[in-house]
């Protein structure tokens, strides 16, 4: 199963790099990659992969070598472990844990350690600045990200991802996103927080090219850089899969019987990924102070309001406890 998850992560990176370049091209009124491959440059990710594999593996002379080599593995393994609790279809889950949602947030937060290690071990001030920004951003936005899921846990009475999906069967109006206004707001807050959590634009503070060159992985080359690359796109798809399972009915279709549940799940998640890409290439980047202000003075109070409001709604309708 670990091998399958690794292949899924690699496939995510291959597919979504091409997709994002085409989305960016469409938004900017250009074609994007067209030359490699017969149809719209579909083999461009393969060419990029071959290029990365051919790059020299360089470790800076003044770097902390053990930490420098360990950092990308920690980030990659954290992303890999989180996939184990995602239910793509009935029975298709690597680890059906009672604390599945908690487990996903717990192992995902380990990436903060990898980011700090990468910035510190590189012995580069730009990498260290990027790591400090990335760690602060991830720790901050984990709070509204987790709080936005609490109303669903209150309604389901379980942290098991399978249970959460099963309780949304019966059509689109049984999906939790449409259960009440507070859960709809919780979904919107989750979506915004998830973009910030995976360091995507307009929240890509750790990698601001005009300020920090390339962020905390500025000194990485070859396969070590590829691990950061794989983890970024795997996390992009991961947060979309969590939203699909928690708010959008998982493998349950809009209406009718469940047919090809895995395909239904993936389509929903991919649509969320495309929406995140559209946001990245449409909105301007925030400043650091605006980023943290948005989290602590807007997102956190609103998610707490969602938890309180959803609890009152469930008590009024007799759905709580």
Relevant terms:
mainly alpha, 321 residues, 13 helices, single chain
Annotate the secondary structure layout.
Elements: H1 2-27, H2 44-53, H3 65-82, H4 100-108, H5 111-121, H6 125-147, H7 150-156, H8 161-166, H9 181-197, H10 209-212, H11 222-246, H12 261-280, H13 288-317
Helix pairs in contact: 1-2, 1-11, 3-4, 3-5, 3-11, 5-6, 6-9, 6-13, 7-13, 9-11, 9-13, 11-12
The general outline is globular
Q: Helix count?
A: 13
The share of residues in helices is 55-70%
SSE ordering: HHHHHHHHHHHHH
* Sheet/helix structural class: mainly alpha
- Low-pLDDT runs of 5+ residues are none
| Amino- and carboxy-terminal Cα gap | 36 Å
Task: Give the gist of this structure.
This protein is mostly helical and 321 residues long.
Describe the structure.
By secondary structure, this protein is an all-alpha fold. It has one domain. It has helices spanning about 1-25, 45-55, 65-80, 100-110, 110-120, 125-145, 150-155, 160-165, 180-195, 210, 220-245, 260-280, 290-315. Helix 3 packs antiparallel against helix 5 (about 110-120) and helix 5 runs antiparallel to helix 6 (about 125-145). It is globular, with a radius of gyration of 20 Å.
